[in-house]
Design brief:
Layout lengths: L1 H21 L1 H8 L7 H57 L4 H205 L7 E3 L2 E5 L6 H10 L3 E2 L5 H10 L6 E6 L8 E2 L24 E5 L7 E5 L6 E5 L1
Bound molecules: calcium ion (3 copies).
One calcium ion binds next to loops.
């Protein structure tokens, strides 16, 4: 029997070892084995699993309580059966004396049974007390169990959170591992680059020495250039002043140019107008040339045509000098009756010719008058007077009554003009 107990204990321990690997206590302890594990949390976990052990231990006491209850019921039923049995036997003994000895034996046996019943009743009371105390203990254990269940739930939630954090840390660890590998690769690359850079650095060091030499040379050149720069700066300032002066001049020229441009445009407009006028004049000139040619033909014909008897020829006209004397109006009337009019002097040559027609002091009426507007002298054919041969201080419109022109012959000379009263009686000259 001791061998069987050892085997059963070993079996139980193995079962516990198996359970402990899937047990939350085992998982939490493994999670909390790090340096940063919280000691209080470790205690809570231990307490939780102690309560679980208690649950396992409490199960047999519950079975004992139930067995005691059943035993009390069985004993109570046995007592009731004995009372009923001895009552029936008593009645049977009084009815039959032959059976009195038997009844005495049964009575003794009943007393013995009653003594046993008394003992059983005492045991039952003891068991009843044990049951009451066990019930109280059970209630306390139930209360403790409720608290432990709550703590277990909290620990379960903590465990879930810790598990999640562990997963996240695992993911971070994997990522960090990958980054570490990348960094290692980069480190190798950088090492190779560093070797190359070392070589380049050596080359650069040599170049630097060469450049140092060059720098000394360039420094000398720079000093020379500095002096050149100073002189160029002075020249630049002078040029700047010249530039400013030129700029002012340029602005003035621009203004002049603008005004000249406007003038040019105006001149262009005037030129265009003049061009159109010139073309118009050209056309007029062409038509006038035709007229002139026709008139020249007529003039030549007139020049070759002789005057009638008593008339004198000059150029294209015929002239007649009266022997009588009349006033200006009648003189003109006489000329018109002859198909002519008072003479109109058109040129210096005609002035000279008229001077030859008259004797000295023989003043003669000519076709000149300002009777229409005082001071405005007109020829009788309506043409204005352009070239004049007035005597000195003439015309004077003496007494405000001299509106007709007379020819005063001179020798030598061209002859002169005077204004006289139109009523005066004197010779006249007709022209046709
Ligand atoms: Ca004339
Ligand atoms: Ca007059
Ligand atoms: Ca006069």
């Amino acid at each position: 029997m001791p061998g069987e107990e050892k085997r059963s204990k070993r079996t139980l321990m193995e079962t516990e070892k198996k359970d402990v690997k899937t047990n939350p206590l085992y998982i939490c302890q493994s999670l909390m084995s790090g340096k940063e594990a919280d000691q209080s949390l470790r205690k809570y976990v231990q307490l939780f699993f102690d309560s679980a052990d208690f649950q396992r231990k409490k199960l047999p006491s519950r079975c004992a309580t139930v067995c005691l209850g059943l035993l009390c019921v069985v004993l109570l039923a046995g007592n009731i059966g004995q009372v009923v049995y001895y009552e029936i036997i008593g009645r049977l003994a009084s009815a039959d004396p032959a059976q009195a000895s038997t009844s005495a034996a049964l009575t003794a046996e009943r007393k013995e049974l009653e003594a046993r019943l008394s003992n059983q009743t005492k045991e039952k009371d003891l068991l009843q007390q044990s049951y009451t105390s066990a019930t109280a203990e059970r209630d306390e254990f139930n209360a403790s169990l409720g608290n432990l269940k709550k703590e277990r739930d909290q620990l379960q939630a903590s465990y879930t959170a810790l598990k999640q954090e562990s997963d996240e840390l695992q993911t971070s660890y994997n990522n960090t591992q990958k980054k570490l590998e990348v960094l290692k690769t980069e480190h190798n690359n950088l090492t190779a680059s560093k070797d190359q850079l070392q070589t380049i650095y050596s080359n650069l060091q040599r170049e630097k020495d060469e450049l140092q030499t060059l720098f000394v040379t360039l420094t000398k050149n720079r000093d020379q250039l500095q002096s050149s720069y100073s002189s160029l700066k002075r020249e630049k300032e002078q040029l700047q002043k010249s530039y400013d002066t030129l700029r002012v001049g340029k602005d003035l020229l621009q203004t002049s140019y603008n005004s000249l441009w406007k003038g040019k445009e105006q001149l262009q407009t005037s030129y265009n107008n003049l061009r159109r006028e010139k073309e118009q004049l050209q056309a007029n000139y062409s038509s006038a040339s035709l007229v002139r040619d026709q008139l020249e033909k007529k003039i030549n014909k007139l020049r070759s045509t002789p005057c009638q008897s008593g008339w004198k020829k000059f150029d294209i006209s015929c002239y007649w000098v009266s022997t009588l004397k009349k006033n200006w109006t009648l003189s003109r009337q006489d000329c018109k009756e002859k198909g002519a009019d008072l003479i109109v002097i058109n040129s210096r040559e005609e002035q000279i010719f008229v001077n030859t027609l008259l004797k000295l002091n023989q003043n003669a009426w000519i076709g000149l008058t300002d009777s229409l507007e005082e001071g405005t002298w007109m020829w009788v054919d309506g043409t204005p007077v352009t070239m004049t041969y007035w005597q000195p201080n003439q015309p004077n419109s003496f007494n405000g009554n001299q509106d007709c022109g007379e020819f005063v012959p001179k020798s030598p000379g061209l002859g002169e003009w005077n204004d006289d009263g139109c009523f005066a009686q004197q010779v006249w000259i007709c022209e046709k």
